[in-house]
Amino acid sequence: MKRILSVVLALVLVAALIPAGAFADEPVREAGSFNSVSTTASAPNVQVPEDERTGKPSVESTATVQKTSPLAASATAPYGFTIKQTTMNYTDITVTFDDLSNLKKTVDSVEAVLTMTYMGTLTQSASKTQKLSSLSSDSFTMKAPTYGTFDVELIFTKNGKKITSETTTINVNAEEYNIAPIVATFPVVFFSLSLPQITTNAEGDPIPTFVSLQRPDAYNWDKLPENVYWQPNLTKAQVEKQTSFDTKTTKFSDYVRMLYQNNPQAKFNLYVNDAYPKYMLRLLCANGIPEDQFTLTLLTDGSGTYSHFNSVFAGTDAQTKYDAMKAGPNWHFRECAE
Description:
By secondary structure, this protein is α/β, with parallel strands linked by helices. About 25% of the residues lie in helices and about 25% in strands. The chain is built from 8 helices and 12 strands. The protein has helices at about 1-15, 100-105, 185-200, 235-240, 245-260, 280-285, 305-315, 320-325; strands spanning about 80-85, 90-95, 110-120, 120-130, 140-145, 150-160, 160-170, 175-180, 210-215, 230, 265-275, 295-300. The strands form 3 sheets. Strands 10-9-8-11-12 form a 5-stranded parallel β-sheet, with helices on both faces. Strands 4-3-6-7 form a 4-stranded antiparallel β-sheet. Strands 1-2-5 form a 3-stranded antiparallel β-sheet, with no helix packed on it. Strand 3 and strand 4 (about 120-130) form a beta hairpin.
């Protein structure tokens, strides 16, 4: 309750500074779709050994995270395999073959292709070709380009000729995310200066940080810091183009929804310009994320913020005017629970 009240007070203050229309209820829309599969399934509660590298459970062992669907039962022998995120918070992926010795009799190489598609557009991809003769075990690893749900295709070849292929999906998840749809320039400076402190947790694990800027020329999108990514359900060309930021943040909300569905225990930290608290409603509240699983950081717009403040309250009894505004008919504001 205290957290709700603190958020409410922050919104109340900012509501006094900007037009009431900025808080008007947004029309209900159908969410944009990812890939060709549902991302809403949850895994049963199972126990598996901890990951050898970090001692943390792998994603497959997390009860609330959707499990990858193994193809061992459905794929024609000897092409059965499983694929999973190696360790929570990291983009490493492990592909394990059910029967490597027999597989080697049929094919000599396997190419793993990961793709993320949003509203019919390919936005993320990665691939790795593995020669079976060089494997010292029955598995190999590769990296996903970012976090979220990916379609996976394994293409089996011999002497450069495709023999067959198998498909599945995989979720690449984290325990905590930073979400940063930022308007203007000064808030971008503040946010960027904070990156060394917010992109890893106390154990040194990544906190994936996703950024979308109203003025995209502020960043070199080819040289992002470690653990920082552009909005993954946009292509790089879309990220770099200065278009409607309302449209970009609406799509950003779809991406946040996917992350939350994949791991309902995840924590979200939202960073926004202090004149745009409505993004909390759009990206967090609209996706049903509980108030104890998110934080909101309002970044000052510098002189812009104080110019709005003074235009409303300068030369008046500020408290009386604030109380009147709050009681008025144009007080557009709601709690997440609604």
